[in-house]
Each structure stands twice: as C-alpha cells, then as structure tokens.
Design a protein that fits this description.
mainly beta, seven-stranded antiparallel sheet, four-stranded antiparallel sheet
C-alpha cells in the first residue's frame, strides 16, 4: 500500500511517498526467500526557465529514498540526481544517477510515452525570469510520480540484495 503527497508549482515541485508492505516472506527458490520492503521517498524538482531550454519542459531533480525490511535486518537508502524532460508532446525522458550506498552507482535512462485520451493544447507562458510563479492548472491530470515496482529483498545461502 502506498500514500503520497505532491506540492506543485511552476518553478519547484516537492513529492513524497510512503510504502507499507503487507506480504509475508516467500520461498522463491530452493534456498532463497524474498520479502517486499517498507519505505519512503522524497523528491524535489526545479524547472529550468523556458529562456534556457526553448519551449521544452526540463527539470533537474534530487531524491532520497529509504527501504527497510519489517521485522528483519535489511535496509537500503540512497539518492538519485538527474533530469527529466519532455522533448515531444507525450514523450518523457528521465536520466539520472542512482547511488544506493553500494560500491557502484547506477546510471539509467527511462523513456515513457503517455497515451492521453483527452489532451488540451498547452503552451507555457514566456518566462522573463527564473522564479516567476504561473498557474499550474494545466498539470491537474499529470501522471503521479511514485515507485511503481515493488522493492524487495532476496535472501539466500550467500546473497542479500535489493531487487526490483
């Protein structure tokens, strides 16, 4: 189960989500078990002014997350730093570095396409500065940002890892 809150503006966004796992530990292989993790995340976005990125929607973001095993000893926390952009109508791109405290940092690129049944033509107003607040009414039906995959821990004879 998850619960989230989003505070949106034309300059900054702040999002936070809380996740509670209700499933029990499952045996997935002969000696391996997996269990969904509880956790939370916090993300802040800063929208670059249209004078810098033409008329594209580009934001820089930083997020922090913390996952833990309820009744267990596994926990993982980390951060992501990157950017998101919308190069064409409903095409979204996200590129970032994910550092979960392990010896390597993961770099990833996500491409998403949203098929919208109803979409009005919105063109951002010309911004004369970096911190001009404008109406965000057009973002009312925007996709909610949250972790869509179940974060789990897999334990076996040798390994303990965070899985997606």
């Amino acid at each position: 189960m998850g619960l989230g809150i989003e505070l949106l503006s034309s300059v900054f966004d702040l999002r936070s989500n809380y996740y509670e796992a209700f499933s029990k530990t499952k045996l997935v292989e002969s000696d391996n078990t997996e269990k969904a993790l509880d956790g939370w995340d916090l993300r802040g976005d800063y929208y670059l002014p249209s004078t810098i990125v033409d008329d594209y929607t580009v934001s820089l973001f930083a997020s922090y997350y913390d996952w833990s095993e309820s009744g267990g000893d596994f926990s993982s926390d980390g951060y992501k730093i990157g950017f998101t952009g919308r190069p064409y109508k409903n095409l979204y791109v996200e590129a970032a570095i994910d550092d979960d405290g392990s010896s390597n940092k993961d770099f990833y690129v996500l491409l998403n396409y949203s098929l919208k049944l109803y979409d009005f033509d919105y063109k951002p107003a010309e911004s004369s500065g970096n911190f001009n607040l404008e109406s965000v009414e057009h973002r009312m039906y925007e996709k909610v940002l949250r972790e869509n995959r179940i974060i789990k821990v897999v334990k076996g004879a040798i390994k303990v890892k965070r899985g997606n």
